Amino acid sequence: MIGNIPFQGSLGEPLRNQTALNKETTMHHSRLKAKGIFLDLDGTIVDSTGAYIEAAQIAFRNLKIQPPEDPVLLEIPRRMEQHLTLDDITKGYTKEFLPLYLNAFRSITESKTQLLPNVSTTLAALSQRAKLALITMRHVPNQVVQKELDYFGILPYFSHVVTGLDTAKPKPSPEALIKCREALNLDMCDCLIAGDSVSDMRAGKAAGAKTVALLSGLYNREELEREHPDLVLSDVSLLPLHVE
Predict the structure, then answer these.
(1) Which of 14, 41, 124, 189 is deepest in the core (most CB within 10 A)?
(2) Does residue 191 sit in the same domain as residue 90?
(3) What is the DSSP string of 117-169?
(4) Same domain flag for 38 and 134
(5) Residue 7 DSSP one-character state
(6) Into how many domains does the chain fold?
(7) Quick one: 63 exposed, middle or buried, by C-beta within 10 A (0-12, 13-18, 19+)?
(8) What per-residue confidence (pLDDT) applies to 30?
(9) What is the mean pLDDT of each run of 10 residues along the chain (244 residues)?
(10) What domain range is 185 assigned to?
(11) What span, in angstroms and rounded, lies between the C-alpha atoms of 217 and 72?
């Protein structure tokens, strides 16, 4: 997705402080076998909360509109991913708002995103068991994302990277997963996708891959469980415990 604080409903309070809820995992679920692991970027590997908020503030300021509170600003990427209206948030200026927002987001992601906790050690562990690929809906050139991954020191863990510019249809289309499967020379039944959004889960189901939902992004447990993932975890750092 273009994420990172879970929500209680569409405009509810962040769940970041509810550690007990977020740390719940499906501990009794059997371990998932995977030769290929496809990982989302925003809300899965990196915390993009600051970038989402600042990009929206920049866009509103350019339109000379007072920005809403942060929880409302974080509703913007959720709705964009699901192709829902932003008119109530943008005061009817969605057409003018979107290019300003997207340009601002692209320009500040490198400085405003940061790795989520324990990502480097997690990727090191996973890469010993499976081939890793990265899938992001960011509509930017592949080399831009690779540069960000290299800055964080995690690019070598990924055998393949797919961005929004590399596919004709974004998630929830399975196109990106199919490209990764082909690049890694694997059967889709041997692959899984781990991500924080409903689009990740829908893309995985459509492709025929296993699905792991993560509570480290913009969606809460109830929203993600409605997509019937194979596993729900608080964050990607727990994935090595459930994959073989």
Answers:
(1) 41
(2) no
(3) TTHHHHHHHHHTTSEEEEE----S-HHHHHHHHHHTT-GGGEEEEE-GGG-SS
(4) yes
(5) B
(6) 2
(7) middle
(8) 66
(9) 37 37 46 96 96 97 97 95 93 97 91 94 97 95 94 97 94 96 97 97 97 96 97 97 94
(10) 19-47+114-242
(11) 15
Domain identity same for 57 and 99: yes
The count of residues in the chain is: 244
Distance between CA 202 and CA 190 in Å, rounded? 17
Question: CA 75 to CA 67: how far, in whole Å?
Answer: 13
Residue 79 lies inside a defined structural domain of this protein: yes
Nearest to 40 by CA among 182, 196, 234: 196
Residues 179, 227: one domain? Answer: yes
Cα Rg of the chain (Å, integer): 17
Are residues 93 and 61 both part of a single domain? Answer: yes
Predicted pLDDT at 83: 87
> How much is the pTM?
0.85
Cβ neighbours of residue 126 closer than 8 Å, sequence gap 6 or more: 37, 132, 157, 239, 240, 243
The residue assigned the tokens 């909360």 is 49
